[in-house]
Design brief:
The structure is a single chain. By secondary structure, the protein is an alpha/beta fold. The chain has 3 domains: 2-125, 3-Layer(aba) Sandwich (Rossmann fold); 133-310, P-loop containing nucleotide triphosphate hydrolases (Rossmann fold), CATH 3.40.50; 313-445, Helicase, Ruva Protein, domain 3 (Orthogonal Bundle), CATH 1.10.8. The protein is built from 19 helices and 16 strands. It starts with a strand and ends in a 7-residue tail after the last helix.
Length: 452
């Protein structure tokens, strides 16, 4: 049964009608006193409550009622209803234990989806914890450490719901892979998984990129453009680097996440979208909220579920598996023979600090294989490339080596050595683990001129 609490009879009637058509039993009351009588005598599966009553337009009575409800029914999800201009009140309610909030007038489809999500997550939370990661479609996620298994168990438990997910963790920990795993194991798997790097979208292009535009909507709009939310319809949209989003763009994003409607530039018609939202960040969003650089209401909208990815140094037992995977993948993609690692080399890789996490390990393994040209790598091979490439790898950030050709990777590595050793060929050859003659051939091949 869903308990509806609102002092407006027309809202009680319309909500009851809509929920009954959707197959839910309902009970509707008009005051906090009636609501607490029901709460004390029964246990509704979910509560849908207004924040403002006739006795108070400030929301204080609604917050007081919410706190009383959570004392009696701490595990029952409460979805708050408030006007768009009173979202701050809804945020206070979320801080007091509410599950979610909607704004009036609400979108029926969005509301039903939030109710379904709340009930699904409540059911999942009551299940006996099980090791579910083994049956999960992992995609390219490699590892079997306890830290990773806990993350994958959470993915397995929440993937089948429509809950918004916020993935946190340092740069290079694999947040995109986790987002993709959630999508692959969801009911939306047959529909698009659309990735958006919000850090790479300027404020001026945000609406066009996310919502699309019609030809002639602005000076450079020479043709129609389909926005990311339209591409992602019925599927999942992955909003990477959401902490980098400009405040003015945050308002526009919140609107579409709240109502699941948007407008294409140059077209006044509102369009609907049905997407699951997964966001990711490597920054401290609560800290950004505290200094007013990130909207608190948007923060609560995107992090119904939070998954924190451990740094690679916190899951060192996965390093040998990851190194083997990167080596085999490089050989497969480029027709190279399989490269073996000595036991000491594996131990060396396992002990490194990896401030760049998995991305840094991948770069180190690939660079060492390509530069050494050996079929078996020792500690000395990795030491040379680590010393040569440690700083450039950190500076490379998100660029990494993915998408580069073998020649481009090799040329980049030689240029890094050139910068590090000021063009000293003997030091460069030693660091790269090749002879001076071999280095000369590569310099000639890539037209790199240095002083001997």
């Amino acid at each position: 049964m869903i308990l509806i609490i609102d002092d407006d009879s027309s809202i009680r009637s319309s909500l009851s009608f809509m929920l009954k058509r959707a197959g839910y039993g309902t009970q509707a009351v008009s005051s906090p006193k009636e609501a607490m009588d029901v709460v004390r005598s029964t246990a509704p599966a979910l509560i849908l409550m207004d924040m403002n009553f006739t006795l108070s337009t400030t929301g204080e009575e609604g917050l007081k009622l919410l706190k009383q409800v959570k004392i009696f029914l701490p595990d029952v999800p409460v979805i708050l209803m408030t006007a768009w201009g009173s979202i701050r009140l809804a945020v206070q309610g979320m801080q007091a234990g509410a599950f979610d909030f909607i704004t009036k007038p609400w979108n029926n489809t969005a509301l039903l989806q939030r109710i379904e999500t709340a009930l699904e997550l409540t059911a999942v939370s009551k299940e006996t914890p099980q090791e579910q990661a083994g049956a999960l479609e992992r995609g390219n996620i490699i590892g079997r450490s306890q830290a990773l298994t806990e993350v994958l168990n959470t993915v397995a438990r929440i993937a089948g719901t429509n809950a918004s997910v916020l993935i946190t963790g340092e740069s290079g920990t694999g947040k995109e892979l986790i987002a993709e795993a959630i999508h692959l194991n969801s009911r939306r798997a047959e529909y698009p998984f659309v990735k958006v790097n919000l850090g790479g979208i300027s404020q001026s292009l945000f609406e066009s990129e996310m919502f699309g535009h019609k030809k002639g909507a602005f000076t450079d709009a020479s043709s129609d453009r389909t926005g990311r939310f339209e591409w992602a319809n019925k599927g999942t949209i992955f909003l990477d680097e959401i902490g980098d989003l400009d405040l003015s763009c945050q308002v526009k994003l919140l609107r579409v996440l709240q109502d699941q409607t948007y407008e294409v530039l140059g077209d006044s018609r509102s369009r609907k979208t049905d997407v699951r939202v997964i966001s990711a960040t490597n920054v401290d969003l609560p800290k950004l909220v505290s200094v007013r650089n990130f909207r608190e209401d948007l923060f609560y909208r995107i992090n119904l579920i939070t998954i924190h990815l451990p740094a690679l140094r916190e899951r060192r037992e996965d390093i040998p598996l990851l190194a083997r995977h990167f080596a085999d993948r490089l050989a497969e993609l480029n027709g190279l023979p399989r490269t073996e690692f000595s036991a000491d080399a594996v131990n060396f890789l396992t002990r490194l600090p990896y401030s760049g996490n998995i991305r840094e390990l991948k770069n180190l393994v690939e660079r060492t294989i390509l530069i050494s040209g050996k079929d078996r790598l020792e500690v000395s091979d990795f030491e040379r490339q680590y010393q040569c490439g440690e700083e450039p790898v950190k500076a490379a950030g998100n660029a990494g080596l993915s998408g580069m050709t073998l020649d481009e990777i090799e040329r980049q590595t030689i240029l890094q050595a050139w910068e590090r050793y000021k063009g000293n060929l003997s030091q460069m050859a030693t660091a790269l683990g090749i002879s001076r003659a071999a280095l000369y051939r590569r310099l000639e091949k890539y037209n790199i001129k240095v002083n001997g």
